[in-house]
Design goal:
Length: about 325
């Protein structure tokens, strides 16, 4: 890549919401989400040419939840880290301003921090003519996500960036790879409007697990991946159960057991906690059935005006540049 990088004056990058763990794959499985109504569920970041080295502002439904000091915003860290990555390649950052459109609630279990990180880095890389490749970008995204959650894990950033359902590998130089999805499944996600921090959700988990639970976890994850590759829908649905996190985290989510009971009654394939919660997901086969479940959750699980429910399928595209203006 030459040092006279492509001179875009403004790009807007979009990164979709994601659901990590998916019950069966704690810290190693995640899927990007696309609402069936065509709306965008995720953050957007504009990167545009400026007269100053760096400027940052925030807009959007959840912008008021972000720190006032720009240097405490994860986008500032992304800018610093991206600049360091360019420097290693003999390139320099262009003067720029970033605008974060914060559409996802913080601490929701929908990969909110990953969304901001991925959209920011996708925007920065596009603005500079894409000098960083996919692998380097994903490494950087994992590092930035780790700054927020306390440990590097890719189960949100990988699907958010690459799209689809991602299996985090971190072996043999491979960070993550996509696995086949059941396109006819509808994922109803509902955020109640309350907050469960990733740190608190991790603290509630036991330091050690019984051998039997470890074996069950491994068996079910293997069965789910195998069923996904061989198109065995019933088998895949039957193992979407969580022995690692849900038994402990369910207590942090008011009304979770009611959601599960209602979903089961309405023929759901599976119900689980999205990420570390409090968002929950319900997998349905029929669109009408999924819409009914969404309405029930809006009426019985959403607790305030911050909450919402969406019927989604898997977003296969991942992060992308959507234009030049917010």
């Amino acid at each position: 890549m030459s040092s006279d990088m492509n001179q875009s004056t403004s790009v807007v990058a979009y990164a979709p919401a994601s659901s990590a763990n998916l019950s069966v794959g704690f810290d190693v499985l995640g899927a990007a989400l696309a609402p069936v109504d065509g709306s965008l569920l995720g953050d957007r970041v504009q990167v545009k040419a400026a007269d100053v080295a760096f400027a940052l502002s925030s807009v959007g439904r959840y912008a008021h939840k972000l720190p006032d000091d720009p240097k405490k915003n994860i986008l500032y860290d992304c800018w610093v880290a991206y600049g360091a990555a360019l420097e290693k390649r003999g390139l320099t950052l262009k003067p720029l301003a970033m605008v974060l459109e914060k559409n996802l609630p913080v601490g929701s279990g929908l990969g909110s921090s990953a969304c901001s990180v991925v959209a920011a880095l996708e925007g920065l890389n596009a603005f500079h003519g894409k000098p960083l490749d996919e692998h380097d970008m994903l490494l950087l995204m994992g590092e930035m996500e780790g700054k927020i959650s306390g440990s590097i894990h890719y189960d949100n950033v990988a699907p958010c960036y690459l799209g689809g359902m991602q299996l985090v590998l971190e072996e043999g130089g491979v960070l993550s790879q996509g696995i086949p999805v059941f396109e006819q499944w509808y994922w109803v996600v509902c955020y109640p409007g309350t907050v469960v921090s990733t740190a608190a959700a991790r603290a509630i988990l036991p330091a050690q697990y019984r051998r039997q639970d470890c074996l069950t976890y491994g068996r079910r994850l293997a069965a789910f991946v195998h069923a996904s590759y061989t198109g065995q829908e019933q088998l895949a649905a039957s193992v979407l159960k969580d022995v690692i996190a849900e038994p402990y985290r369910a207590a942090l989510i008011d009304g979770f057991n009611n959601v599960r009971a209602q979903a089961t009654q309405n023929g759901a394939l599976a119900t689980g906690i999205s990420g570390s919660g409090p968002t929950v997901f319900v997998v349905m086969k029929e669109r009408a059935q999924a819409e009914r479940m969404k309405e029930w959750m809006e009426a019985h699980f959403v607790q305030n005006e911050d909450g919402f429910a969406r019927v989604c399928t898997i977003d296969m595209a991942g992060a992308r540049v959507t234009g030049s203006e917010l």
